[in-house]
Amino acid sequence: MKLALNQGKIHHEMQVLEKEVEKRDSDIQQLQKQLKEAEQILATAVYQAKEKLKSIEKARKGAISSEEIIKYAHRISASNAVCAPLTWVPGDPRRPYPTDLEMRSGLLGQMNNPSTNGVNGHLPGDALAAGRLPDVLAPQYPWQSNDMARNMLPPNHSHDFLLEPPGHNKENEDDVEVMSTDSSSSSSDSD
Length: 191
What we know:
The protein is an all-alpha fold.
């Protein structure tokens, strides 16, 4: 009986030790998992640091002094001045510069897109030869003045054709203004 009690005690101690081993095993596995994550984070950090060092070295090899950049900027700004339209004044609700959409549909935007350079397959020179202003030279936005469009014409063409649509005069303009301020007429009214 004594032997059975001793074996029972030993068995109980073994179970306690097995539980302790399992607990330590799970702790070790958690630590191993955390170490793997830390290793991955460190490997990523080392890789990114190496890439930064490479880019820094590349930048040092092709370094340009700030003075040289400033000189270049002055040279560009001296030959390519950018300013607001002459008719723009502070407090004017219009932008002093064209929007992206206005730039794309302006003269330079038309030049970049060869499929829209001409109207119906005709080049702007054909319109000048016919005695009318090409669509790409017509003022399209409020910040563009008619004088600006006239200055864009080639020097060998005369300025004798009108920049305003046929039938345009001050009386018609007043009629349109009166009609547009009348609240009883609306383009959205339908009968």
